[in-house]
């Protein structure tokens, strides 16, 4: 005979009335029974109140923006006149003074109205997850920029904008070729918005992001103006253009003895050399590199000031350029390939030791190989590339793939193993005859670094080993985070 379980017995007792249970009933008033405590129901906790969502506030650009945008219709007219000067002159000569004044009286207010309306219908707002920009007068366009996909924000201040006290924000976003921009904002507003967006991208809460402020920076390098000017004078491109400006007109003079032909040839060449040199000097003047938790900060510009940021972990390749005329002074130029960014110059000119110390901030743990470490191709490579084969070199260690190119203008490319996306081996017909091969490594910036004219057996082993080093490097790489 099986005994009922406790649950079943309780169920039977609950189904009987109290008087039907007779003497077997046990309760608080039953004789000889101990009092049974009555369970007190626990208070039901009140549901937690959900935090109120922060209202999205839309902002307009700075009030001087309409003046900048009013130039758009005027620019169209000027562009047409430059493109077809004969037609523009014909139409202009047909106009009398009254018609011209009426045209200006219509064009100027229309341009002003266009600038005002485009400014009025442009708004931007920062939400919990994105930066939203609404533009368009007739056709509305809304750009949704995810905050976690922002990798750099540059602050640009052209000359007229500096006079007006405004600035432009340019955003580098993962997966886009061109930069989105907000032009123009007040300088204080632009810096505060940049700091807030970078804090949001770093993972700070929306309610505290605006309190983070701009991360402090420590200066690493400042290029003196005199050093920059001398380096530009010693650049091979400048001297090449000047030599062409002397040789070509001289030959034309001997052939034609025409002063106008000589001037028509010499002046553009001299102007091109001067424009290139002066343009670089104006753009790279007062070049300053600083270190902060959100990356390396670069400030430069004589007339137009630019504040750029090299995002941490986004650098795919570092390139050290050493022109021939710089070697006696041990000067180098450092360039970058950054995924999804157009920023390419890290240091315009600096002594090699200082440049390498800055590179150590961009690529932690990477040692720049010296000339003795770089291994040249075998001597039979001279049959494939006469003379210039001596400029090729290769060095590979546990952290970086380094390849050198160039004999007069040396270029050393440094690719961390974690940034290598693919590895390839190629052989031309003459290379196969000589037992040589090229090894190519592709990076995330859609660039390729090549180790030229390696021994075929060495290249095959390098291909296998580099693929393994790249897999290991990606597993051990630190996450790309802001303000780490």
UniProtKB/TrEMBL annotation:
Residues 34-48 have a biased composition (Pro residues). The chain crosses the membrane at residues 100-122, 227-253, 259-278. Pfam families: bPH_2. Residues 119-196, 293-359, 389-464 form the YdbS-like PH domain. This is YdbS-like PH domain-containing protein. It comes from Streptomyces ipomoeae. It comes from the Bacteria. Keywords: Membrane, Transmembrane, Transmembrane helix. Residues 10-19, 466-484 have a biased composition (Basic and acidic residues). Residues 1-53, 465-484 are annotated as: Disordered.
